[in-house]
Amino acid sequence: MTDPIVCITNVKKIYGKKEVVKNISLSINQGEIFALLGHNGAGKSTLIKMLTGLIQKSSGQISINGIDVAPFQKNAKQQFSYLPEIMALYPHLTAKETLHFFAELQNIPEKNEDEVLEIVGLSDYKNQKVGDFSKGMTQRIGFAIALLPKSPLLILDEPTSGLDPFWAIQFKKVIKHLNEEGTTIVFASHILSEVEDLADRVGIMSDGELVALGNIQDLKRNAKDEVKIKVSFKGIQDVAELTNKLSYPIEVQKDSYILSCTYDEKLEALKALQSFENIKDIEIKEVTLEDIYHEILTKRYAMNA
């Protein structure tokens, strides 16, 4: 197992009498894509802002590569790049001037500026003022700024916010490519499909608490919902024969049969179905991250009712 690049230990954030992040502990390993998932107001962005040193934690410890994170801590800030959910830029600067401004602050070679403009598809707009950019273009220039230093850790808060479907897909391709080259990615999102597509591990937050943590396969394995295998046959299939050969609950649905099993039993069930030569079609509905998220929050809300 690789060493953790991020360590968060017993971290809290309190505003007045309201505790918005409640005693969270987790570590993020080098080279992984880690997602914080949660509803609006869950505490994702607050945790991200403490991780980047934008706001001070009320208690606990956060470190990146063994360096304690705190506001104005320069050594810690050199360990990562950050894309906030809302990017504040100088509206009268062009895209090229904006990148050059941030590059000079960090002593980054000028060649990096053209590289990142190309990555985010803004090379043809480099001489246009960013104040005239759409929300999606502003998000793309923000991503370009985060890519400038080629940091080993990239922290993204709602990275596809404001993007059209094409650029949301392109962003995900860039994130995967960076990760393949060794970059650790931490991102916050409320988009379930985005998290399921990208993340190696997920931390689910609700009301300031970390209510689930693990890789997606383990979360599916532990889910209450079952895998459903829908089978249709050529001609009439004897239900008694199905029941005798398959040791799983079977539901008859019009001209199909729905077999229920756990995530770990899925391959065994499919193998058992191979003994039937008259199968016309098989459709598998696995447990999704949406199912898991709904199950966890439904259980949580029931406990707090």
List the helices and strands and how they pair.
Blueprint: E1 4-15, E2 18-29, E3 33-38, H1 44-51, E4 59-64, E5 67-68, H2 74-77, E6 80-83, H3 95-105, H4 111-119, H5 135-147, E7 153-157, H6 165-180, E8 184-189, H7 192-198, E9 201-206, E10 209-215, H8 216-221, E11 227-233, H9 239-245, E12 250-253, E13 256-261, H10 266-273, E14 279-285, H11 289-304
Parallel strand pairs: 3-8, 3-9, 6-7, 7-8
Antiparallel strand pairs: 1-2, 1-4, 4-5, 9-10, 11-13, 11-14, 12-13
Question: Overview of this structure, please?
Answer:
This protein is of the alpha/beta class and 305 residues long. It folds into three domains: 1-79 and 151-222, Rossmann fold (3-Layer(aba) Sandwich), CATH 3.40.50; 87-150, no CATH class; 226-286, Alpha-Beta Plaits. It is built from eleven helices and 14 strands. A six-stranded mixed sheet has the order 6-7-8-3-9-10, sandwiched between helices. It has a four-stranded antiparallel sheet with strand order 2-1-4-5, covered by helices on one side. A hairpin with a 2-residue loop joins strand 12 (250-253) and strand 13 (256-261). Helix 3 (95-105) packs across helix 4 (111-119) and helix 4 (111-119) packs across helix 5.
Question: Largest sheet, if any?
Answer: 6 strands, mixed
How many discrete structural domains? 3
Beta percentage is 25-35%
**Biggest sheet: strands side by side, in what order?**
6-7-8-3-9-10
Shape: globular
Summed up, the helix count is 11
Order of secondary-structure elements: EEEHEEHEHHHEHEHEEHEHEEHEH
- Helix/strand-derived category reads alpha/beta
Helix content: 25-40%
Gyration radius over CA: 24 Å
Per DSSP E runs of 2 or more residues, the count of β-strands stands at 14
For the terminal residues, how far apart are their CA atoms? 40 Å
- The CATH architecture of the largest domain comes to 3-Layer(aba) Sandwich
The CATH class assignment of the largest domain is Alpha Beta
Q: Looking at this structure, what is the CATH superfamily of the largest domain?
A: P-loop containing nucleotide triphosphate hydrolases
Give the averaged pLDDT, no decimals.
91
